[in-house]
Write a structure and sequence with these properties.
Length: about 120
């Protein structure tokens, strides 16, 4: 990850298949989202970055839930505890895959190449 993340910038490493940004609410939490066919989809549109599906920061104090779509943050309703539980199970699977992938790739290359693209908060 880049040592410091700037607010309002989505950082993407194609090499590691991961994106990172500071939580859009401004709380300062670093949010990492793995990219891939079964994870998040990243698209760099002319208007700005799109990340799909939504980002739910249930591990953070702020509990923020939003989409980043074409450079804009679209705020969502907070989820019910049932929805959060269902979302967390999916996240655990994704995290496990991410760490497996990272261990393999860190042997090959340690240089992270990051592309930053801006979104409006
Ligand atoms: Zn936040």
């Amino acid at each position: 990850m880049p040592a410091t993340l700037e607010p309002g910038v989505l950082y993407v490493s194609n090499e590691f298949g991961i994106a990172a940004h500071l939580c859009a609410c401004g709380c300062g939490a670093k949010i990492r989202t793995p990219l891939g066919p079964t994870d998040w989809q990243f698209d760099n549109t002319d208007a700005g970055p799109t990340l799909y599906p939504s980002i739910g920061n249930w591990q953070q104090q702020c509990q923020s839930h939003y989409f980043i779509t074409a450079g804009e943050v679209i705020w969502m309703e907070q989820w019910t505890p049932e929805q959060i539980a269902a979302g967390r199970r999916g996240e655990e699977r994704r995290n496990q895959r991410y760490f497996e992938q990272r261990q393999r790739k860190s042997i090959i290359s340690r240089a992270w190449s990051w592309i930053g693209s801006r979104f409006r908060r």
